[in-house]
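Two records follow; treat each independently.
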Amino acid sequence: MGERNFFDDLEGMDRKEREAYQLEKLKEQIKRAYENSPAIRDIFDGKGIKPEDVRGFEDLEKVPIIRKTDVIELQKKYPPYGGLLTVPEEEIQRVFITPGPIYLPHQVEEISWFGKSFFAAGFTKGDVVINTPTYHMSPAGLLFHEGVRAVGATVVPTGVGNTDAQIKTMLDLKVTAYAGMPSFLMTIIKRAEELGYNFRRDFKLRKAWFTGEMLPSSMRKVFEEEYGIDTYQCYSVTELGGCVAYECKEKKGMHFMDDYVIEVVDPETGKRLKEGEIGELVATPIHNPCWGLVRFGTGDLTSYITEPCPCGRTSYRITGIVGRSTEAVKVRGMFVVKKQMEAFFAGIEEISKYQVIVERKEQRDELYLKAELKDESVDKENLRRRLEEEFPKNLRVRLDRIEFCEKGTLKEEDTLIDRRKWD
């Protein structure tokens, strides 16, 4: 397979043209799902919705969100594919299995969805890539493999584990690129150093493509500055069968994949949110010929930006996954995400322990911070002003008050506490 320039596809399309194209494909997908998928037909009929009621993207709000737990229950009701299959079973080319279990029917795409992501990461013909996810049952190994081949690079299907064998393979084959999780690449590097190698000098690895877990900025800095590895992230969702968003050379957010209609919504209401507001990422595949999933809720919290990217790709971008919907508390209409909050306080060296608490007073949410200090002699007023300024910049909601406590005051271990009662 030769190298393919994926940028010639939809990526540079005028935004209005893209929206018209995606809306047409969305309507086709919903019609196909309604006519061929008993589960989707049940959901639509239960809400009194017909495919023709979805005239624009905003009409998706009428459709209930389907989550992983719903898919598991649907596969019990309509075994084995949950009533979501939209083609005869004999047309399925392969079936992946994910925890649940969930059986994912799949057809080989003419154009690999992951190919766009690898192309954006600079993978090309001449690269030798170790592909480290499992090839067993899960779709990861095989789909990444096809993405690497789509850009013309050579794949070495090493799979998971066996760090010493990975190291020998990388040396023998002069591997130039890595696909997998960032934590595993760091494990490989540290083991190589234990064996006496100078990784940057002795290995040819200069590119890395990550998915499966988020890449902390601190780890990215180590990869790029200490080891000379150019790193890229891809956001993929197993139940959706592919790459949903991916980084380009600018590394300023992950571009929406054109094969999905992507929404960022309030997970409680399903209402679409505005640019910059944190909500759950919901996606509807529009190029999957056999899977009738509509409005799949990933459970991942993110926000999006519409600013055009200097790379020339015209899609919107997600700003990164900041947490799970089960790890967030909605305060005055905005989500305070535990993971994001903990990352913020990790940079406040003066604080040894803290709790962010939300209460309900006079029909208003009140958010306040209780914190223990490492050193009582710290300038409390200066720290208070800093927190009052920086907390809303990072969490998008203001603290109503800040209380500095004596050491040993904070007994609960949880850092984000919701004490509101809705009697």
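The next record belongs to a different protein.
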Amino acid sequence: MHDGLIRTLVILTFVGLSTIGLGDEPKPPAGFRPLFNGRDLTGWHGLNPHNVGALTGEQKEANLAKQRAEFSKNWTVENGELVNDGHGPYATTDDDYGDIEFLLEYKTVPMADSGIYLRGTPQVQIWDWNQVYDLKAPTRKPHLGSGGLFNNTPGTSGRDPLVLADRPFGEWNQFRIRQVHNRTWVWLNDKLVVDNAVMENYYDRNQPLVAKGPIHLQTHGGEIRWRHIYVRDIGPEEADQILKGADAETKGRLAQALTLHASFDTGLDADFARGDKACYLQQGKDLVPAVATDEVKLVGDGGRFGGGLHFTRKNNFRPVYKDAGTLGYNDQSWNTSVSVWLRLNPDQDLEPGYCDPVQIVGDDLKKGFIFLEWSKDETPRFFRYAVRPLFQIWNPDNVQWADIPFNKRPMVQVERAPFSRETWTHAVFSVENLNNKRKPPVGRLHLNGKLQGTIENWDLTFGWDPQRVLLVLGAAYVGHLDDLAVFDRALTDNEVKQLYELKQGVRELR
């Protein structure tokens, strides 16, 4: 059966659960089984995994026994509802679960904070969404609503929900959660709030999510009630079908978002563009057609995917592409992503001074400036992504960029970025909600498919003339460059990862 039809049937069935009388025997949808019998705590025990993580031996065993003994003091059953008083260990399933579809309803109170651990890993978050956003805790965003993977790295896809879907206090909320391998989907009150996001291994982010583990219902300072708790195992064939379908959908979305692709197989002009394919050089106020030189060579078999560009030494030859139909700059809400492959040893190949392999510029650098750069003084040289808005915003004291402390600059800085002469490095930078007065702007940098950091809590207002915005390559750059691509929105982590893993590069999207 088509996944969309399965989703519809499950949601319709789940919505109908609200008509079941309290205290009745659980009546799960077809294919699901109950994890809570509505009468007692059978199948559950008390465990806060954070309380035993550092313990071993007898100390650990004693703590586990103590939590099990405390469980029934804080967790009770009332009218077919599993009730926690806001304290005590988490309600933990006796059994472990891997790939599953999970349904439940919950109702909580103001200032409560809770969540659902999958495979023993935190967590699908439950907030009091009426809380006001506090700039002193910039990664804590209860005002965006529940359902996000709060313990993922800040800035990654899925950490914050796609939409606010919580119902008012006093009403029941419905979760549908699908976990397949390390991918997570969350629907809250029939709205998709997490879409195919990777759930990180909270306990060791360098390791994948464990294959199986218990489900925890977290308690965290306020009463919360749970009911209609059902699970359905997802077998290997269905899991494979779900992931293949999700990957195909992601690839399709990437193709729809693509605005420019330059492979550099046969020339500097783009292979594909929604607007102008031509590559130019800027001579004064004029743009003239760009032709490769001895300083910036087309290398037929030297690219990441076929041909590529080789910037042989620091020079003033800087290929540019017009914005029209490509970057989509506007003064209302600007979103774009730029993808490029680079190969060099920064400490051996670059000449003294700043080096910017990619820039986005407008009519005046004081009205906005976006760039990738290597620093000029540090050894090893830092790699950075910067989004500099109007000059008075980022530099009110009118000092040199190098004189501003690192943490006071609107940039992401990577001290030991994975660049070398032997291997290619994939860089993707994006901007989201720039010039948007209602949504917070964000800049993100990914290297080799992994988020390196974000630019947040800045006023990223630009003042460019949209007719004079350019994408610039090779400002003081020495090294190889290939497979330039531009997209009309900020890409998600999964999209960036899939882009990085394309076997033939961006040509697969065209």
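Discussion point: The two ends are 29 Å apart (CA to CA). How would you locate this feature using only the token line?
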